[in-house]
Structures are given as structure tokens and as C-alpha cells.
User: Fold this.
Amino acid sequence: MNDIVLEPPPELPASARRGVEAVLRRRKRTCLEAALVRQRWLVAHGLPSEIVIGVSTPSEGFIAHAWIDGEEAAAPEQFSELSRIP
Assistant:
């Protein structure tokens, strides 16, 4: 199995996160992809964070979601935690 090596994010001030968020809003991506990008940005700026992966089973079927711990108010209430990515 090959390890995936990611390049660090560009050296920009932490305030440039607004730009990261703008790109994530405009690009087609999954919640897991967005959480991985956000986590990489936060860690590179000295803010350790964990990705939470949760599941929900509403009447209409199974739903999974990923988010950064503490950054998404609605998700933790609606999803049961399944895993974390430190």
C-alpha cells in the first residue's frame, strides 16, 4: 500500500482561511474532502483539530457526514459519532 503524501498548504496568514472557505463553497466536493482540507489548514496554522465522522438513520435512510470537531453546530446533534481522524 502506498502512503499518500500531501504538500503543506501555501504559507499564507491564518486570516486567508476565508479564501479556503470560498473555494470549498464553489467546488464540488464531499463533506469528508472539505473536512480534510480544513483540518490541514488548521494544523498548518498551529490549531490542532480532529475530523469527526458521524452517521444518522432518519426515516428516509442512512446518512454519513464529516466535520471538524467544534466547528459545525448542527452536525453533532443529528449524527452519532462513528470515528475520528486526529
Observations:
- The first strand starts at residue 51 and ends at 56.
- Helices lie at 17-26, 31-44, 75-78.
